[in-house]
Write a structure and sequence with these properties.
single chain; 467 residues; mainly alpha; Sodium/glucose cotransporter; globular; transport
């Protein structure tokens, strides 16, 4: 067992050294605030696709979907199908419009239609939602490393956090893109190896079908309501994720940006089926374990070299996901709060120093909360759900800019935050998922503001016509 653990640690250490070298080698491109947040050049579609794929198949989704597969069967894959649909629709509906704004933050785009109040509210909502997802990322990474390396999960989580924060502060956005390309490839290979091992140990898929309850193979086993909620949260999160926007605006043209989205969509769907089936295999092989350990325990039983590949893939995607989240949050803090209000004639060096410090702070906050997290997929889902609110506002901004009012937009965002989080904390009473509030609150607020606007115009016209 000691030799196995030593081999896994050694391979993982070598991989992280390689990733650190990549990040360090491009540090000169992060010597300005623009270079740190945008990478300093246009990137090929396949690189941007790898960036987005690595984040959305990160450890929280992998561990969380396997956990859900352990509990409810292969229908857990709908979580990833929703993300696949989100990228497909992003390429069809929004890529061109995002790029034509020549802006790289969602909040700045919304400000053009709804004003500064909405910009600040959207920025804070995005930062909060990204940090919620980061909690799930840290927790899942700690679960994997803790189980495989046989150390306390809390200690493993802290190690994960420190290494991830180091990556992003050294190389900036370009470092995130290059390292995530490598991470995505290793992650996909690792997940296929894990499924091959799981099916072999389980006696094959046909044997699983006879050994486990039929509900584990029901495509709608988690419930239609849950699937629909995943669609809302998944599609909404893709439409309004800050680092996704930063990625698609750095491709050479609209065609390249769309192609990046289609690449991710095509790869996301089979990934979901694979991870959900791994959870099903674990339910057969290790029925007495906690569901959160469905994937980590499987890895702990794999041959050392294969396990090493899975571990570095999971950890690499984890670091990439955290890096993308923290740099996105840092970019928003820089563009929306520091530069408009505090820069005041200071040079770019001050902006660069601010974003480096902010990424460290933003990385540490969810790390503390991750030490107490258990329901990984549920936590990640809340972060995605909140972004559905911004997806509604983006769609209205691009396709119906005259619908509603700036006050309605601000009210919708605030109302969404309050109702969505409150309902989530209450445990989603009556089986109604909190994501419905994230979608419904802005729609309701904008509809009411539109009705009031029409009524006000009617009164004004009546006053003018009155003799």
């Amino acid at each position: 067992m000691l030799a196995r653990t030593t081999l896994i640690i050694g391979v993982t250490a070598l991989y992280f050294a390689l990733v650190a070298f990549i990040g360090y080698s491009v540090r000169r491109h992060a010597s300005s605030s623009a270079g740190f947040t945008e990478g300093g050049k246009a990137f090929a579609p396949w690189l941007i696709a790898a960036l987005m794929l690595s984040e959305f198949i990160g450890s929280s989704v992998s561990i969380g979907t396997a956990q859900k597969g352990f509990e409810d069967g292969i229908s857990a894959a709908w979580n990833l199908v929703a993300l696949s649909m989100g990228f497909l629709l992003l390429g069809v509906l929004l890529v061109g419009r995002y790029r034509r704004t020549k802006l790289n933050t969602i909040s700045a785009i919304l400000e053009q239609t709804y004003g500064k109040g909405v910009r600040y509210a959207a920025s804070l909502l995005t930062i909060f939602s990204l940090n919620v997802v980061a909690v799930a990322l840290y927790a899942s990474g700690g679960a994997v490393l803790g189980a495989v390396m046989q150390i306390d999960r809390g200690i493993a989580t802290v190690i994960v956090g420190i290494v991830a924060i180091f990556f992003v502060t050294v190389g900036g956005f370009r470092s995130v893109i290059y390292t995530n390309t490598l991470n995505a490839a290793i992650k996909y290979l690792g997940i296929v190896l894990a499924l091959a091992f799981a099916l072999t140990e389980s006696g094959g898929y046909a044997h699983l079908r006879t050994a486990l309850p039929s509900r584990m193979f029901d495509l709608s086993g988690v419930g239609v309501s849950q699937i629909f909620a995943w669609m809302i949260a998944g599609i909404g999160s893709i439409f309004a994720t800050q680092y996704v926007i930063q990625g698609i605006v750095t491709t050479p043209d609209d065609k390249g940006a769309r192609r990046a989205c289609y690449y991710v969509s095509a790869l996301m769907m089979p990934f979901g089926a694979i991870v959900a089936l791994i959870g099903v295999c674990s339910a057969f092989l290790y029925p007495g374990i906690k569901s959160i350990d469905a994937f980590p325990v499987l890895i702990a039983h794999m041959p050392p070299l294969a396990a090493s590949i899975v571990v570095i893939g999971l950890a690499g995607a984890l670091f990439g996901g955290i890096s993308a989240s923290t740099i996105a949050s840092g970019t928003l803090l820089l563009r929306d709060f520091y530069e408009p209000h505090f820069k005041a004639g200071k040079g770019d060096r001050a902006s660069l120093r601010f974003i480096r410090i902010s990424t460290v702070v933003i990385g540490l906050i969810p790390l503390v909360l991750a030490l107490f997290a258990s329901k990984i997929l549920l936590i990640a889902f809340l972060g995605k759900s909140l972004r559905a609110t911004l997806a509604v506002m983006i769609l209205l901004c691009f396709y119906a800019p005259r619908f509603g009012t700036p006050r309605g937009a601000l009210t919708g965002i605030v109302l969404s935050i309050v109702t969505t989080i409150s309902w989530f904390v209450a445990g989603n009473p009556y089986g109604v998922d909190s994501s419905y509030f994230a979608l419904g609150a802005p729609v309701a607020a904008m509809t009411v503001s539109q009705m009031l606007k029409v009524r006000q115009r009617g009164r004004e016209l009546a006053t003018v016509r009155r003799p």
